[in-house]
Amino acid sequence: MNTKISIFECLSRPIETKVKKSMSMKAYRKLLRRQESKRKYANRIPKKYKVYIKSKWWEKRKNLYFQSHEKKCAICSSSEHIQLHHMVYKNYGNEKDEHLVPLCREHHNLFHSQTGTHTNMVKDTNDFIIETSEIESFPKV
Ligand SMILES: [Zn+2]
Ligand SMILES: [Zn+2]
Known about the structure:
The protein is mainly alpha-helical. The protein has helices at about 1-10, 15-20, 25-40, 50, 55-70, 105-115, 120-135; strands at about 80-85, 100-105. The longest helix is centred in the first third of the chain and has 18 residues, at about 25-40. The protein is elongated. The chain binds zinc ion (ZN) (2 copies). One zinc ion binds next to strand 1 and helix 6.
């Protein structure tokens, strides 16, 4: 009876047997480690802005921001082609609300073409919003 059980147990582990036969224990552990690091990497917020901005993390953060802020350009109040501008390039995924500001595509492009891109653009962004709003509020002749 005991022998039968042990044979059954052996047969119920075909994968383990296959692994042992086809690869060394060292190679098997290496494979497990590689899978583990792949899984960790998939759950990590990208550190590079260009990667981050296309990631699910930014998508989530953006949606959270617009739950409590209007989707309108801070300068012209347009609600078309709204982009969320980073005033500070850090804390990706956990950006402070006050470091983000919605701008329409045109004003977002104008800002970066005038100011470039720097790690901290809080002052630049606030100045740009005030100055551009003033300039554009002049009646057109
Ligand atoms: Zn605008
Ligand atoms: Zn920007």
